């Protein structure tokens, strides 16, 4: 058995499946209406729906002979947590790099930790008033 995250990642890797999820994110649609949105065969759309359903990303409800689909947001939870963790880690790394660069720039000044006019070649306000 595969992990829910792996199933979700494989399912959303295909652009048409992502488009299907967008279509049914906030409304329930019959398979025929979903299929009408794509230039592929109905059986191909049905396969995509099956992959999404197997991954836990799509809820299917039967109404007589019709099958109605809606995104299952709880199935997206493992994917969301994974992406949030990546994002958080990336932001932490970016912050650490920026802080390290600022510290490096500040300590590379001529005997000072200040960043400013000495680096840009501009005279300080005190020097302008003195001379």
UniProtKB/TrEMBL annotation:
NCBIfam families: HTH_metalloreg (NF033788). This is HTH arsR-type domain-containing protein. PROSITE patterns: HTH_ARSR_2. Keywords: DNA-binding, Transcription, Transcription regulation. One of its GO terms (molecular function) is DNA-binding transcription factor activity. PANTHER family: TRANSCRIPTIONAL REGULATOR, ARSR FAMILY, TRANSCRIPTIONAL REPRESSOR SDPR. Residues 100-131 are annotated as: Disordered. It holds the Pfam family HTH_5. Coiled coil: none annotated. The lineage of its organism: Bacteria, Bacillati, Actinomycetota, Actinomycetes, Micrococcales. Residues 1-98 form the HTH arsR-type domain. InterPro entries: ArsR-like_HTH, HTH_ArsR_DNA-bd_dom, HTH_MetalResp_TranReg, WH-like_DNA-bd_sf, WH_DNA-bd_sf. It comes from the Bacteria. CDD domains: HTH_ARSR. It comes from Cellulomonas soli.
